[in-house]
Amino acid sequence: MRSQISLGRVFGIRIGLHYSWFIIALLIVFSLSAQFHSSHPSWGDGVILALAVATAILFFISLLLHELAHSVVAKSWGLPVREITLFALGGVSQIEKEAGSAKVEFWMASVGPLTSACIGLLCLALSRLWGVDSSPVTSMVSWLGYINLALAVFNLIPGYPLDGGRILRALIWWKTADMDRATRLASRVGQVVALIFIGIGILRFFGGAGIGGLWIAFIGWFLLQAARESYLRISLQHAIDGVSVADVMTTDCPTVSANLNVQHFVEENILPTGRRCFIVVDHGTVEGLVTPHEVKQAERVRWPSITVRDIMRPVERLRTVTPITPLASALEMMSRNDLNQLPVVSNGRMEGILSRAQVLGFLQTRTEFGGVEATVSRTHR
Ligand SMILES: [Zn+2]
Known about the structure:
Blueprint: E1 5-10, E2 13-17, H1 21-39, H2 45-76, E3 81-87, E4 90-95, H3 102-129, H4 136-155, H5 163-176, H6 179-209, H7 211-239, H8 245-248, E5 255-257, H9 262-273, E6 278-282, E7 285-290, H10 292-297, H11 308-311, E8 313-314, H12 327-337, E9 341-346, E10 349-355, H13 356-369, H14 376-380
Parallel strand pairs: 2-3, 5-6
Antiparallel strand pairs: 1-2, 3-4, 6-7, 7-8, 9-10
Zinc ion binds next to helix 2.
């Protein structure tokens, strides 16, 4: 989940919105307007709309506070936080490292629901203090109170990777001192919880609940994906612990002359070999890298008249790794920049290429013989 609209930084953490967030914002504004219209028709359309928008914004801020709580605790334990993204189903904090101990994981997970619960109780106390459910502001604050309490309760459901699931994982981890087992168990529970959501959602849909039922099923489906992915990611991290780029890269990279025209390059190099990555050389020096992606960017009619040099990614613009770079960092770099391969450079010399396909092959072999379940190839193909 990546942010598409940047909202600036808080405590050095980037805050962003995913487009899907607007769906939930609109939904909140519409449903609140409808609710206020039926409960307080005397307020008038203008007041009701303004109130609904203000409530949606405050709800957004309370979600943000929930995520900030997670992130600030993570940072205080030295775990880097890249960004917080708000999307249709809430927020995610992109914490770039796994917690090093059960204790850190426990606090990092607990502090989110705790924050929501505090905001909820504070809002409810304020709304009681300001009188009964009569004024627009009191109605807004009491709605925020209930929704934040609901948020705290929902997040405490022990379905990993919800906060409750993380707390469960931390507790099992602490009891058994076995992180892998804790992750596996918490993720199983997460998948069961997700399936229950899907089941309830479908039953309610056919029972006449309409969109509301579908929404619950959708949340379940999302949780199911998230539980599988989080488990996979943690297993992967474990599987590539201590592996460096040199263990996985290929050193027999095909080369191609910078002066070859693209038509020839396609007919004589790409098609017969099926290779996807070529090092571009000129008189023995490396000039850049070329893949089918660059070829496809050029119009087919121009292929006979342009050279590989015209379309290649020049060496100075390439992101590179060294043979001793940990595989985990290289993978992180690939996924962050959406790259399929990384040139491996050492002392200014091209030593080889690391490609996604090789990493997958490597992981597949490892998982076939290792303790990690062989779900990697199935999920990533
Ligand atoms: Zn949370």
